[in-house]
Amino acid sequence: MGEIEKQRIARLQKLLGEAGIDYYIVPTADYHNSEYVSDYFKMREFLSGFTGSAGTLVVSAKEAGLWTDGRYFVQAESELAGSGIVLYKQQEENVPTIQEYLGKNVAGGQTVGFDGRVVDAFFGKELEEIFAGKNVTIAYERDIAEALWQDRPARPASKVWVVPEKSCGMGVPEKLAKVREKMTEEGAGHLLLAKLDDIMWLYNIRANDVACNPVALSYTWISQEGAVLFIQPEALTDEVKKHLQENNVACVDYDTITAYLNNCEIAGKVWCSGADISYMLYRLVQSRAELVDKENPTELMKAVKNPVELCHIRECYLKDSAVLTKFLFWMKENAGKVPMDELSVAAKLDGMRAGVPGFLELSFPTISAYQSNAAMAHYSATSEHFSRIEAEGFYLVDSGGQYEDGTTDVTRTIALGAITDEMKLHFTKVACSMLRLADTKFLHGCTGRNLDIVAREPLWACGLDYKHGTGHGIGYILNVHEGPHSLRWQYRPELQETQFEEGMIVSDEPGMYVQDSHGIRTENIVEVVKEDKNGYGQFMGFRHLTYVPIDLDAIDTQYMEPSDIRRLNAYHESVYKKLSPFFEGEALEMLKKATRAV
Amino acid sequence: MGEIEKQRIARLQKLLGEAGIDYYIVPTADYHNSEYVSDYFKMREFLSGFTGSAGTLVVSAKEAGLWTDGRYFVQAESELAGSGIVLYKQQEENVPTIQEYLGKNVAGGQTVGFDGRVVDAFFGKELEEIFAGKNVTIAYERDIAEALWQDRPARPASKVWVVPEKSCGMGVPEKLAKVREKMTEEGAGHLLLAKLDDIMWLYNIRANDVACNPVALSYTWISQEGAVLFIQPEALTDEVKKHLQENNVACVDYDTITAYLNNCEIAGKVWCSGADISYMLYRLVQSRAELVDKENPTELMKAVKNPVELCHIRECYLKDSAVLTKFLFWMKENAGKVPMDELSVAAKLDGMRAGVPGFLELSFPTISAYQSNAAMAHYSATSEHFSRIEAEGFYLVDSGGQYEDGTTDVTRTIALGAITDEMKLHFTKVACSMLRLADTKFLHGCTGRNLDIVAREPLWACGLDYKHGTGHGIGYILNVHEGPHSLRWQYRPELQETQFEEGMIVSDEPGMYVQDSHGIRTENIVEVVKEDKNGYGQFMGFRHLTYVPIDLDAIDTQYMEPSDIRRLNAYHESVYKKLSPFFEGEALEMLKKATRAV
């Protein structure tokens, strides 16, 4: 075991010696820092044998080391056995970060290398700082390991499709005009986008090159006069070509981006967000022009959904809510009666969702977690490790779909039988948290840092907390995690905060996790709406998009204020009203019971 | 009327012509940007005749203009009549700011002047930006108007006194060591402080050079080896000289600061906070060394009160709470029975406070506002404009004292007779706001921007708001307004936020203001305390320092959650417990009734 990888590392070390590279970094990333990495880009897995979704390999003549986080310590130890690769357990005491490791080991005159296409500019600039004044060379222009991977999978090149204007609500010319207006404001002659969801949004196209993200591998280069889309030729259909042509977007081969940027005429500054671009392209552009290193202008535009998008999103969330509710009813009915486990019920839910009209794919792999498994952050059942489900305790399911009319995300926790008083307390507080935040009225100008405490306070009051953010933006037929707004409380002066604007959508997902016992999360997606405007300013609020019952079997009203009870009852009344068209007969009766007033 | 000022302006214009200055700015400030300006520094009032506490005069050959804010429009119009000075009403539509006025009117080749000692570096740098590339000279080294003011009052030079170590809890050597540690961290060889309360804190001294602020005009220059205090020689007693000498602080004449900084040896960078220093000194230091332009290191140290200070503060707030409570009882008993007005009752309260052991002076001029007057921000009754008080409606009093053992600040609003349902609603919501915030438990790391919504939410939920911050820090026998922490919600990326630390004290003062009707504010001071520490982190909370009943005659429990009622009753129970030692007989009965459970 591990023999193949041992040989691969040895061959890589030989290549590095020939190339004059002393330390070589292989991260887990594609050229666009996507949340999911397709097989083509799994170079780190190929070299190390470690199959986890996160990890970085560093190879030198004397050592190969793999850095990964707590989710994967057990798996990595087992998969790295025999390879000779040293496991560096991130955030364990006395374990150096990669930056610290390189800072300590790399000597003056040495060279640190990586494929500059799969390392983002942020990390690359960090390395520059670490080695500043140390006479260390950063070699980022070649993928040294490439030659070793003979049977490398094909790079994804799915067919691009056009989002019809009746679905996206705004044409490409209007979007380009808004982008160009922002460029003028910033004094930028050009804009380079590498962030795939921004590019998809801008050109009203979608594809399937990244799991769960309906995007195509692409770049775009925009000036006041023209727009160039770099995309794989085989991804384009005649319809897409026509669409782009009609919108004056020139198509150029994806692989010519470097040559193009090296040779094109550049007038004035280039807007290029260092957080969203590879180190290679960042350096290339930097060598040719003055940079405007700011958040992509498309980021905020994409986040504020237009009325047509919102109309589709509302409908989409109803059908998605209905299917999840049916699944949860099935779970409560059948737990303890039919054999089930975390994987089998996830497969059942995924199958039910696939039957919903307009379904494209999942928006992320379903998190299906029973009892203490739900207490683990990022838990993911695998065929090696999963739990059987019985008629007791809590079951947590966090799931969502990509549809032709929206992207969904929702979490519910349900009691499958007896639960303790502490579990009821936690569940009730989390429900109050979610509903209070959704019900908050606030003045325009508030950011997520102002509002986060509204969700967190019921738990903080008990000396409890959930160690994750309260919410994130969500795309429209796009990535389930989207910026620039969010709900969090920690102060980080370097982070720009974004005000909530009418038409944004955001998740509201407080939780409570007790190690070795249980995990609870209740997640609705809400849209930001305008409330009354008066002498004090423009008041804003949220409106639920998600309508799924909150399990009353786990609610104990003694832990609620009267206003919390009113809020829960009002929510359930609207759940019944919104979902009843999707139910009939006995199921409708179950819905009625599940949404009864308490 | 206005003839004298007309002549003064004309004579100033002549002097400006001789000095080659085209626009001359006279702000309302001393050399230290103090909150209150002593008579010696009232040059703007001398030249213009306008006696308001805020305003800036700009004089050119063709015009003299006075800028002031909404509080003073009526007064300024009347006081400027006949002087020929044009009134610029700040924030009115189409009224330029001073910056806009100068930007538009000052031509290339012209000179803008001011006394660089009374203009802060922030404003000076703004002017530099406005005139960048315009060939405009900024002349800041002479006080041109000085020659006109023959009978100028003497500059204050009150006697300095030493705060005994049993009162301040930390000696000068320890404070200097902490400051020098911070200087080392920032790589600064020297630190220049001009902020008077920071200097008083550092050397454990106090004085009386600024109304309501127990400070002495001074500067200090600190290096790793030594510390120099620039202070008026007549302010020093033998005791103070001995104290400073024992602590290795050299005393130098206040007026030699410029000469000293021009000639002293400077090794390395100079730490000098641009927000807290005059433009003249900023430019001087800038010409001699590289600057570290960051918040004074003393700012945060001073804000975190030590256990000895806290012990005194808690006692001080009790006696101050008792005297205010007695005053409020007297008001409620006597309104409508004995003649009273805003000024007479303020004088009565000030007199009662003066009788409290350890009283030094007021910590700010008492705000005594009846009915609709309380709806005006910064209302201040004057002998020309004040209201009689009857047995109806709301009376608001915001007041505080400087004592030998602390600085207090407290606001209460009381019903003197019949009030409307709307007034009850507003009063009840404000009381809930204040008490909820004081009762909030939060994780260490929170800043005022996280917590502000806890106070504001009960009002926001009704579409209401108060257009001021929720809270500010308070000094210890020092300024009643102190940084660096605060409670506010608006996002201003350029503003550094400060986490709440154990031992900070902060005001909790929500309000509600309805023009032409009523104004409500309920203000307690709270200290930041540690609560439990567990796997989620260090929880923090607040503890009341102020114990004054909240008028139950204006509370309507229908607007409260059960938890709000519990909170109010618990607060009143502790008010009774803490204050009863200060009361006896009939007054004790009144206290019992005022703090009864509802």
Please summarize what this structure is.
The structure is a homodimer of 598-residue chains. By secondary structure, chain A is an alpha+beta fold.
Which structural traits does this protein have?
homodimer; 598 residues; alpha+beta; six-stranded mixed beta sheet; 28 strands; globular
Strand count of chain A:
28
Biggest contact: A-B, 36 and 36 residues
Uncertain stretches of 5 or more adjacent residues of chain A: none
Structural class of chain A: alpha+beta
* Largest β-sheet summary of chain A: 6 strands, mixed
**Quaternary structure annotation:** homodimer
Overall pLDDT of chain A? 96
Q: What's the total helix number of chain A?
A: 18
Percent in helix of chain A: 25-40%
Q: Report the C-alpha radius of gyration of chain A, rounded.
A: 25 Å
The span between the termini of chain A is 59 Å
Strand order of the largest sheet of chain A: 4-3-2-1-5-6
- What percentage of the residues of chain A does DSSP assign to strands (E)? 15-25%
Identify the overall geometry of chain A.
globular
Description of the molecule:
2 copies of one chain form a homodimer. With 598 residues, chain A is of the alpha+beta class. The first copy, chain A, is 35% helix and 21% strand. In chain A, the strands form 8 sheets. Chain A has a 6-stranded mixed β-sheet. A 6-stranded mixed β-sheet of chain A has the order 12-11-10-8-13-14. The model of chain A has no long low-confidence stretch (mean pLDDT 96). The A-B interface holds A 440-443, 445-447, 449-454, 457, 460-461, 463-465, 467, 489-491, 493, 496-497, 499, 531-532, 534, 536-537, 539, 561-563 and B 440-443, 445-447, 449-454, 457, 460-461, 463-465, 467, 489-491, 493, 496-497, 499, 531-532, 534, 536-537, 539, 561-563.
